[in-house]
């Protein structure tokens, strides 16, 4: 049983202590808040600007209306990147490479949109259309911002988003962060890695460019400088549907491989021009992009939002250090007080 | 029964048998996890997990790390209360909470190795040239690692005597003196670092953008929501553990102390709910909660786990009821669990056609890690001075 007098004494002491400390703590918090505010104010340009596209940025223009779905690009991509085939056991042709989506083994695929009777190409109603899936090479990529070990990098000149297996820790935050679902992971390997299109930058040293564009028979996938590709897209969009024009193939600005063709009816949208702060693969289509699996995305990359927050809180470690100072002061004072009460050292 | 005064009873080892049916069961569960671990490291993540490119984060990241570290916030919350807000009366709760925290966090860090595909590169996170300071995950990993070190240093006076051998025994008093002298710094770091990484675990969701359901994608509010619930979970876990410890080791209940603790918990819970619901209303996301979707269902499960304890503990009298207090603490832990499960898994969708539910092997590893944590806690409170000694009279 407790001695009531003792309880009373203890209670008084607690009250006395907390009353005093509320005052002191209030003072300390005020000082701390002022310091924090000063710290926050002195952080220069915490808000992170959206990255802008490099004038020498390289990329692809994919024109869904020109694509015939031959998947030569898929095969060429596999070959140039030395990727293994993917078999579909439950089909009539279980011995062929038949990837259904990009994956740890496949960097690009052509998918098909189907509706109703599928009579007409590039029509939303009772039609069909092809669509390419591969890395968009964002101007302000989420994967680069998310990666804790700089295994994802964006080249300042070419803008190619590349991956370093040597740096990667396999955390897969890039896989989760990418709004296009592009980086993929080889879960089935003992020593796994991320797989993603790197625009065939490994072929540049041989004077070659992206294999998918090189083999495309119709110029549906076209390689070149993004400024040139956007100009070409604008030219096509300005033409009258049904009229004759010339379509370049392979590399825009490379050897002339153009051929005459008929202009299709485009939806009024160059996908990748504005989406998510812009991408270096841009696309034209006759069918709305949300039908093709390319969703409506905000004009700003989520990397901007995230890094604005991080830079505001942690720029120069000013705020954490000020906070640490306030905490250290409070802890030191309170520890001293406990020790005095205890008449000994801290446990 | 229990006194407030931290100077009344210094911590002392509990003693007793180490091999009991309970510890044997926990040992068996730990062993099962180790077996799965061996398979994972030989055949890869795909051999034992249901992870896929639509759900690259699974149970091991979301439970073992995100939730596990939040459940280990007892030490953080108690340090905040006792050393920063100067509530000395809660001092007896600090050490047991710190022990649970140091284990929870250390195991969270160990379990990351299970999950990292290229674990042998893990050191890159801290290596200049590799480190990406723009990455939220960099900040989380760095702060968690530093915090684990700080906690082991804080805790070192309790175990240095036991492990020192030979000439090391001579320098133990010196180490203890240095640690005691710098204790204020370790305590300050022990509050700063969890504040940073527990909030950042919420910031990790910002980059998911539209892939995260509007009921959870609250942008700049995410870090605050995760921080507040982490502190809240710290309170809840202390109540939970203190109740279980008094039951399991047949010690007197600390209801009086816990009831007063519950007052802070209740106030903080109110603040959290006002912010959480207010943010949803202001952003116009609340209507999503009234649609017939799976997300809305799990949202309400999450919200009820926070709202019910608010009602349960509204009256001061109910905070003195050990059963109610324990029930409220369990619900709050569930609420914090659901917020994190919802944010990282239920509310996350990267496109059609992806599904994820943890495999049996994933559960075995998670359960095994928890079992190991409980096992270590039981063994260590029996061997080391962690829990406050009881007066012979009250035995």
Written account of the structure:
The complex is a heterodimer of chains A (about 350) and B (about 400). Chain A is an alpha+beta fold and about 350 residues long. Chain A has a single domain, classed as 2-Layer Sandwich (Alpha-Beta Plaits), CATH 3.30.70. In chain A, about 35% of the residues lie in helices and about 15% in strands. Chain A has helices at about 5-40, 70-80, 140-145, 175, 210-215, 225-240, 300-315, 320-340, and strands at about 60-65, 110-115, 120, 125-135, 150-155, 160-165, 185, 195, 220-225, 245, 260, 280-285. Chain A is elongated. Chain A starts with a helix and ends in a 5-residue tail after the last helix. Chain B has helices at about 20-45, 45-50, 60-70, 75-85, 90-115, 135-165, 170-180, 185-205, 220-250, 255-285, 295-310, 315-320, 320-345, 360-385. Chain B has one domain (about 20-395): Formate dehydrogenase/DMSO reductase fold (Up-down Bundle). The termini of chain B are close together. With about 400 residues, chain B is mostly helical. Chain B is about 70% helix and about 0% strand. Chain B contains 14 helices and no strands. The chains are: A alpha+beta (about 350), B mainly alpha (about 400). The interface between A and B is large, with 72 and 78 residues.
Write the layout of secondary structure elements.
The complex is a heterodimer of chains A (347) and B (395).
Chain A (H helix, E strand, L loop, with lengths): L3 H39 L15 E6 L8 H10 L27 E6 L5 E2 L5 E7 L8 H5 L5 E3 L6 E3 L9 H5 L6 E2 L8 E2 L15 H5 L5 E5 H13 L5 E4 L11 E4 L18 E4 L17 H13 L3 H25 L5
Chain B lengths: L20 H23 L1 H4 L10 H13 L2 H11 L6 H25 L20 H28 L4 H14 L1 H21 L17 H28 L6 H29 L10 H19 L3 H4 L2 H25 L13 H24 L12
Helix pairs in contact in B: 1-14, 3-5, 3-13, 3-14, 4-5, 4-8, 4-9, 5-6, 5-14, 6-7, 6-8, 8-9, 9-10, 9-13, 10-11, 11-13
């Amino acid at each position: 049983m407790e001695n009531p007098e003792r309880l009373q004494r203890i209670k008084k002491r607690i009250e006395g202590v907390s009353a005093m400390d509320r005052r002191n703590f209030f003072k300390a918090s005020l000082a701390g808040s002022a310091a924090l505010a000063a710290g926050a104010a002195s952080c220069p340009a915490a808000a992170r600007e959206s990255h802008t596209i490099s004038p020498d940025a390289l990329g692809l223009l994919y024109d869904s209306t020109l694509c015939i779905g031959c998947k030569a690009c898929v095969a060429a991509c596999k070959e140039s990147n030395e990727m293994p085939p993917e078999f579909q056991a439950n089909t009539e042709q279980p011995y062929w490479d038949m990837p259904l989506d990009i994956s740890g083994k496949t960097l690009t695929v052509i998918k098909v949109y189907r509706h109703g009777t599928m009579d007409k190409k590039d029509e939303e109603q009772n039609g069909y259309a092809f669509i390419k899936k591969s890395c968009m090479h964002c101007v302000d990529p989420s994967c680069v911002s998310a990666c804790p070990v700089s295994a994802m990098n964006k080249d300042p000149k070419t803008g190619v988003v590349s991956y370093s297996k040597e740096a990667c820790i396999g955390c897969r935050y890039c896989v989760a962060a990418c709004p296009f679902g592009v980086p993929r992971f080889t879960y089935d390997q003992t020593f796994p890695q991320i797989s993603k299109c790197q625009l065939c930058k490994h072929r540049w040293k041989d004077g070659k460019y992206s294999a998918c564009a090189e083999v495309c028979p119709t110029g549906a996938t076209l390689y070149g400088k993004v400024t040139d590709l956007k100009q070409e897209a604008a030219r096509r969009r300005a033409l009258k549907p049904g009229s004759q024009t010339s379509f370049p193939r392979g590399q825009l600005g490379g050897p002339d491989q153009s051929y005459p063709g008929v202009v299709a009816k485009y939806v009024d949208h160059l996908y990748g021009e504005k989406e998510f702060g812009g991408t270096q693969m841009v696309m034209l289509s006759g069918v709305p992009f949300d039908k093709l699996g390319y969703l409506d995305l905000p004009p700003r990359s989520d990397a901007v939002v995230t890094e604005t927050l991080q830079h505001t809180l942690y720029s120069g470690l000013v705020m954490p250090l000020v906070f640490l100072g306030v905490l250290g002061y409070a802890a030191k004072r309170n520890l001293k007080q406990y020790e005095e009460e205890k008449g000994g050292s801290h446990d | 029964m229990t006194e407030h005064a931290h100077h009344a009873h210094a911590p002392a080892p509990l003693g007793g048998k180490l091999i009991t049916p309970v510890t044997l069961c926990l040992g068996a569960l730990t062993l099962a996890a180790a077996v799965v671990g061996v398979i994972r490291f030989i055949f890869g993540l795909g051999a034992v997990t249901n992870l896929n490119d639509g759900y690259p984060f699974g149970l091991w990241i979301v439970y073992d790390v995100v939730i596990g570290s939040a459940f280990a916030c007892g030490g953080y919350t108690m340090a905040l209360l006792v050393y920063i807000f100067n509530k000395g009366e809660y001092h007896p709760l600090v050490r047991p909470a710190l022990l649970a925290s140091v284990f929870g966090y250390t195991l969270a860090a160990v379990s990351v190795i299970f999950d990292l595909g290229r674990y042998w590169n893990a050191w890159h996170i801290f290596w200049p040239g590799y480190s990406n300071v723009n990455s939220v995950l960099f900040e989380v990993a760095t702060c968690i690692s530093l915090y684990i070190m700080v906690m082991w240093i804080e805790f070192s006076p309790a175990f240095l005597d036991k492990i020192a051998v030979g000439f090391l025994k001579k320098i133990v008093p010196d180490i203890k003196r240095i640690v005691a002298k710098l204790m204020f710094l370790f305590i300050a770091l022990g509050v700063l670092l969890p504040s940073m990484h527990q909030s950042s675990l919420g910031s990790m969701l910002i980059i998911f953008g539209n892939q995260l359901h509007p009921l959870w994608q609250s942008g700049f509010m995410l870090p605050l929501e995760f921080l507040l619930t982490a502190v809240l979970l710290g309170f809840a876990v202390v109540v939970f553990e203190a109740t279980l410890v008094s039951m399991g080791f047949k010690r007197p209940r600390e209801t009086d102390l816990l009831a007063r603790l519950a007052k802070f918990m209740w106030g903080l819970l109110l603040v959290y709910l006002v912010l959480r619901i207010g943010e949803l209303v202001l952003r116009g996301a609340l209507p999503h909660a009234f649609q017939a979707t799976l997300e809305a269902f799990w949202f309400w499960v999450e919200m009820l786990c926070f709202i019910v304890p608010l009602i349960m503990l509204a009256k001061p009298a109910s905070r003195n009821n050990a059963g109610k207090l324990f029930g409220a603490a369990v619900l709050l832990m569930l609420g914090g669990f659901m917020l994190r499960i919802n944010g990282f898994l239920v509310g996350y969708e990267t496109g059609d056609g992806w599904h994820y539910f943890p495999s049996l092997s994933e559960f075995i590893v998670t359960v095994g890690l928890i079992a190991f944590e409980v096992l270590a806690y039981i063994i260590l409170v029996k061997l080391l001075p962690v829990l406050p000694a009881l007066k012979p009279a009250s035995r």
